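S.,

Sequence below, as promised.
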Amino acid sequence: FLAAGFIRPHVPLVVPKRFFELYDSGEIPLPPSVPNDRADMPEAAYDSWAANFNISDEDTREAIKAYYACTSFIDEQVGRLVQALKEKGLFDNTIIVFVSDHGYQLGGHGLWFKNYLFHESVISPLMVKIPNISPKKINQVVELLDVYPSLLEMAGLPANQKQLEGESFVPLLQGDAK
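The prediction came back faster than expected:
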């Protein structure tokens, strides 16, 4: 078992310069601007220190560029781990789980960071590679507390269902709907 944790993308959005050079700020689209976007939402949805920064379009693009740079940096780090598994002959029989704890607002609704119950900040990436199961995209909802019981099942280890709050998502990976 190997667990690797990465802090990026997270503020401060700092990574080596070469990752920033992958992106042209002028080509980064701005988040959509929806007229009267907040008219039908409770004030509590925006009542936070991270709301309403009202930053310029140029600064918005630079902030998004920094987030993209950090994401590319992490992509490279994950690639290095995968390459090491391949070089050691372990890739084909290794379970790999890539997960994050939350999504991130990148200026949508005028918001930044993770503090909101909008789609962008409540979703999180979850990618799983299991030996002998073909890659596929699954559009079912799973929760982060489902990762542990899923790992137990994938590893063929017993699970005490009375002590687990999550459910294994392995049936979804095998093509069975919940």
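The first strand starts at residue 96 and ends at 99.

Coffee later?
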